[in-house]
From TrEMBL:
The protein's name in its UniProt record: Hydantoinase/oxoprolinase family protein
Pfam families associated with the record: Hydant_A_C (PF19278), Hydant_A_N (PF05378), Hydantoinase_A (PF01968)
Domain Hydantoinase/oxoprolinase N-terminal, first and last residues per copy: 8-182
Domain of life per record: Bacteria
Coiled coil, from the record: none
Residues covered by the Hydantoinase A/oxoprolinase domain: 203-494
Limits of the Acetophenone carboxylase-like C-terminal domain: 509-679
Length: 692
């Protein structure tokens, strides 16, 4: 009798590396694989991670996937030729936007650039009122004629935004149906399918972004499905959303924009699992890979999420109005290129060497020094032991390029130049952490920073010092952590409805009916998912604001508030959050309910806790691989022990300076730091006061 497939396989594609983590649900065993990302042939990189771990697809019953393909398509502006159909009289709202001017005195300021040029934006004769009733019927004949014109233009994707479709989607549904009849090969997206909230600019931006990335993302997912079938995989294929939850690949092909931040979100889910295992309520999740660094927050055991995000930075951002993890990203990673600009200014990033050609150290044709090269020059990476010796690094080439391109133009030696590169990178990465803590009214110094990603542990101590964080945790397998985090993800469906009611006037029967309708949709979606969830969890929230305010904050609302019809508790919850977020609140002022939110989770079986054997305070002699010179700003070059992480035991204590090496990452323990290995194998670091 053939054994039932037991593997849950997760793959995360990053800018430099593709990572794989697999969980054998029968034995509890974890398997890992890593390979350079193969841009242009992403499926090839995925297969390479499977091969490196000696896994057979036929043994898998569930495949979970996160990829940067959607966000990269958006940021690199290489998506489909897209048209926009919009309500008559509103052709230019996508370009006008919110008229933000964040830098009032910048004469060279440029506003956001639409993904659809004006000549491909077309008005549709129709109009709904704010309550969803019809003011002007839809001119179907005109839409059909327009669709034929678009076919002649060679349009690959079409976004549809009709005013007030969140109240009544009938016009959008009919326009989409006509477009699909006349343009059978095009990707068509209607705004109500993605967002049931008001704000027409954010809605049109979301719909256009989805249409723009849709053909490329859906084609890629189709290719991956075909590859899985050819390899004998007969299980279920799920995509990680920007919330960290899972949804079927069929849904991902339609709502591609929901996977913009899939990899980073999975890392935060993994950090949340670590917090739960240790009974730790608050943490900063920090991920540094080859291209970018990302930060998110776990507060009181739950990741902070947002109902919308600005993609591409505040100044020129395109808003995306879907639920997602509240993550801030900066263009600094291991592959970030350092260069000397006019006026002898040293810059690091956001340009990245990626996987091709990669850092100088990789010996694949790269000539511009990167953050990874700086770490090699300073002795923090080992040329002969990178990725367990699978990839030999070119130290001589790094030193030569560091001298010629950075050190000599600045009048420094190679060591000083490399140290300067790391200092700039650390400062830039600290901005990501401050953006999700200090700028949210949170005290970063009171949080433990959970650091992962292949390059994260190299810089964890330095970033913590920069911000004033006192505790750092390096989890098990940090170099594979986003893929590992996917194994802790649950099936997830998010729903939102704009209501516009004053809290004091709202009937609890009305609000309960609205919530129940969304919850029923979520339960039905779970039932159709094909995966047997262990249980169902319902979470409620609401966007609230004081009467007279424009912008709202999202407030988590326990079910008990509704069972007890406790209007005062809802108001108090809002007041407290407003105080944290803005430093002020107005308990005597009335509040509005703007939108209702529901999250329906289908909980999945989680991998067991990783554990290590108990040891003494002093690590075993076999744990020390070598002693070598490493550069630290506070001490200069110092003889530094190098420990093998898989030889460290629970209770082991190490005082910096030290390096902890493992297959896909190296942790730097600065002079003055104190490390302790906990029972789960995490490296818990108390940050010293010495500067790096």
């Amino acid at each position: 009798m053939t054994q039932k497939p037991q593997l849950r396989i997760a793959v995360d594609i990053g800018g430099t590396f593709t990572d794989m983590a697999a969980f054998d649900e029968a034995s509890g065993r974890l398997l890992f694989g890593k390979a350079l990302s193969t841009h242009g042939e992403l499926v090839k990189g995925i297969q390479a991670t499977i091969d490196s771990a000696k896994i057979d697809w036929r043994d898998g019953h569930l495949f979970l996937h996160g990829s940067t393909i959607a966000i990269n398509t958006l940021l690199e502006r290489n998506g489909a030729k897209t048209a926009l159909l919009i309500t008559e009289g509103f052709r230019d709202i996508y370009e006008i936007g919110r008229v933000n001017r964040p830098d009032a005195y910048n004469l060279f300021f440029n506003k956001h650039q639409p993904l659809v040029k004006r000549s491909l934006r077309f008005e549709v004769a129709e109009r709904l009122r704010a309550d969803g009733s019809t003011h002007k019927p839809l001119d179907e004949a005109a839409v059909r004629e327009l669709a034929r014109d678009l076919k002649g233009e060679g349009v690959e994707a079409v976004a549809v935004l009709l005013l007030h479709s969140y109240r009544n989607p009938s016009h959008e549904q009919r326009v989409k149906q006509i477009l699909q009849e006349e343009l059978p090969g095009a990707f068509v997206c209607a705004s109500h399918e993605l967002s049931q909230e008001y704000r027409e600019f954010e809605r049109v931006s979301t719909a256009v972004a989805n249409a723009y990335v849709g053909p490329r993302v859906s084609q890629y997912l189709g290719q991956l499905e075909d590859h899985l079938g050819q390899q004998g995989f007969e299980g279920d294929f799920y995509i990680v959303q920007s919330t960290g939850g899972l949804f079927p690949v069929e849904h991902a092909k339609v709502g591609c924009v929901r996977m913009l931040e899939s990899g980073p979100a999975a890392g935060v889910i993994g950090a949340q699992a670590i917090c739960a295992q240790l009974g730790m309520g608050d943490a900063i999740a920090f991920d540094m890979g080859g291209t970018t660094a990302k930060a998110g927050v776990i507060s009181e055991g739950r990741p902070l999420t947002t109902g919308s995000a600005l993609i591409g930075g505040y100044e020129r951002a395109l808003p995306i109005q879907i639920p997602m993890m509240d993550i801030h990203e900066v263009g600094t990673g291991g592959g970030s290129i350092a260069r000397v600009e006019t006026g002898k200014a040293l810059r690091v990033g956001p340009q990245s060497a990626g996987s091709i050609p990669g850092p100088v150290a990789y010996g694949r044709g790269g000539t511009e020094p990167t953050v990874t090269d700086a770490n090699l020059v300073l002795g923090r990476l080992d040329a002969d032991n990178f990725l367990g010796g699978e990839l030999k690094l070119d130290l001589a080439g790094c030193q030569r390029q560091m001298h010629e391109r950075i050190a000599a133009p600045l009048g420094l030696d190679a060591t000083q130049a490399a140290d300067g590169i790391l200092q700039i990178a650390v400062t830039q990465m600290s901005h990501a952490v401050k953006a999700v803590t200090t700028e949210r009214g949170l005290d970063a110094g009171s949080f433990t920073m959970v650091v992962y990603g292949g390059a994260g542990p190299l810089h964890a101590s330095a970033i913590a010092r920069e911000i004033g964080i006192r505790k750092v945790l390096i989890p098990y397998a940090p170099g594979y952590f986003s893929a590992y985090g996917m194994l802790f993800s649950d099936l997830r469906y998010d729903y939102v409805r704009s209501v516009f009611r004053k809290l004091n006037d709202l009937s609890f029967d009305e609000i309960e009916a609205a919530y129940q309708k969304m919850e029923d949709e979520g339960r039905a979606a779970l039932a159709q998912s094909g995966v047997q969830a262990d249980g169902v969890v319902i979470e409620r929230a609401a966007d609230m604001r004081y009467v007279g305010q424009e912008h709202a904050v999202t407030v988590d609302l326990p079910l008990a508030f509704f069972e007890g019809k406790d209007r005062a508790a809802i108001k108090k919850q809002f007041d407290q959050l407003h105080q944290v977020r803005y430093g002020t609140s107005a308990p005597q002022e009335p509040a509005d309910l703007v939108s209702l939110r529901v999250t329906v989770l289908g909980t999945m079986k989680k991998p067991p806790k990783h554990s290590v054997a108990q040891g003494t305070a002093v690590p075993e002699a076999a744990a020390v691989r070598a002693v070598k010179p490493v550069y630290f700003r506070s001490t200069g070059w110092a003889q530094t022990p190098v420990y093998l992480r898989d030889r460290l035991l629970a209770g082991n204590q190490i005082t910096g300076p030290a390096l902890i090496e493992e297959h896909a990452s190296t942790t730097v323990i600065q002079p003055g730091d104190a490390l302790r290995v906990d029972e789960l194998g995490n490296l818990q670091i108390e940050i010293g006061s010495d500067r790096t």
